[in-house]
């Protein structure tokens, strides 16, 4: 098992270097001078431009800048924004909020998605099953920004059940509506995955044998059907956690959540390339680590995977 974990970590190294190089290239090789974008419509003095280019190594060759940036990342220094703020401090302030939002979204997915999927699977072909499939298809086909604006307008403005935007400090109660929106698409997949897994498990011989022994449905469903159906669902939820952290940019921007995604959204609007590169790099690292953890979880749940050559 230890060698399996080490092997998965080693496989993540080229992914890290490749993704950081692509991110750095996409941001810093775009046309235009990022220093000039800082001043907007104003025309800076040549001395100011030269000083800022030297400060952010923009006058260095591309590969030199990349290796300087990579060296800072490996030392834990994420650099500073064009406004002089430390990106480390920005992430320390915003990442806990994004983490809470993602955690709340995963809980919503787990409770609602698994429950609806279980009932649909046990009542295959019934009214509840058909309605749940229709609703999940509607959610899957709807872009997240549309779902966010609709939920904000109906539940936040018209009905007043939730605050339309997140208040200062981002209390848990204010994060419920953004978490529902963030969980919406993945929750639809959890419903369908749980339903399919429950239907498949219900047809196994050990389930029929349990009923043949005289066990009640109240015993067979949670112990024999649900427990064995949760293996693919559990690994899917673990993968979703990384996706939710990385993909919260649009949701946080719409609901004004003071998280990493909202900060990235603002940095893109400002054209603050050092902050954009650093934040996206951290999100990539989180996503890679979560996926490595999922691979290890697969190895724990199914030992055969560890020995596949």
Automatic annotation (TrEMBL):
The chain crosses the membrane at residues 12-29, 101-119, 131-155, 175-194, 237-256, 276-301. It is found in: Cell membrane. Keywords: Cell membrane, Membrane, Transmembrane, Transmembrane helix, Transport. Pfam families: BPD_transp_1 (PF00528), BPD_transp_1_N (PF19300). InterPro entries: BPD_transp_1_N (IPR045621), MetI-like (IPR000515), MetI-like_sf (IPR035906). The keyword Transmembrane helix applies. It is a multi-pass membrane protein. The keyword Transport applies. Residues 95-298 form the ABC transmembrane type-1 domain. SUPFAM superfamilies: MetI-like. Gene3D superfamilies: MetI-like. PANTHER family: DIPEPTIDE TRANSPORT SYSTEM PERMEASE PROTEIN DPPB-RELATED, DIPEPTIDE-TRANSPORT INTEGRAL MEMBRANE PROTEIN ABC TRANSPORTER DPPB-RELATED. Belongs to the binding-protein-dependent transport system permease family. This is ABC transporter permease. It comes from Protaetiibacter mangrovi.
């Amino acid at each position: 098992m230890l060698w399996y974990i080490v092997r998965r970590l080693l496989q993540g190294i080229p992914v890290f270097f490749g993704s950081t190089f692509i991110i750095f290239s996409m941001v810093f090789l775009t046309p235009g001078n990022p220093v000039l974008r800082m001043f907007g419509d104003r025309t800076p003095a040549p001395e100011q431009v030269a000083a800022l280019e030297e400060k952010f190594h923009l006058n260095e060759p591309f590969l030199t800048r990349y290796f300087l940036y990579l060296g800072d990342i490996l030392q834990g220094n994420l650099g500073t924004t064009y406004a002089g703020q430390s990106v480390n401090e920005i992430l320390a302030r915003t990442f806990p909020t994004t983490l809470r939002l993602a955690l709340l979204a995963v809980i919503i997915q787990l409770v609602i998605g698994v429950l609806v999927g279980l009932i649909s699977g046990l009542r295959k072909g019934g009214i509840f099953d058909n309605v749940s499939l229709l609703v999940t298809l509607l959610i899957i086909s709807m872009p997240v920004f549309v779902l966010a604006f609709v939920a904000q307008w109906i539940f936040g403005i018209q009905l007043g059940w939730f605050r339309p935007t997140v208040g200062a400090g981002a209390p848990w109660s204010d994060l419920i509506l953004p978490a529902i929106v963030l969980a919406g698409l993945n929750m639809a997949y959890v419903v369908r995955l749980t339903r399919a897994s429950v239907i498949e498990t219900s047809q196994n011989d050990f389930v029929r044998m349990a009923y043949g022994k005289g066990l009640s449905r109240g015993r067979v469903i949670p112990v024999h059907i649900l427990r064995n159906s949760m293996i693919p669902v559990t690994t899917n939820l673990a993968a979703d956690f990384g996706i939710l952290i990385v993909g919260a940019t649009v949701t946080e921007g719409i609901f004004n959540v003071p998280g990493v995604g909202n900060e990235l959204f603002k940095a893109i609007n400002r054209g603050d390339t050092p902050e954009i590169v650093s934040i996206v790099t951290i999100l990539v690292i989180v996503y890679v680590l979560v996926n490595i953890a999922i691979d290890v979880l697969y190895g724990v749940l199914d030992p055969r995977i560890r020995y596949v050559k």
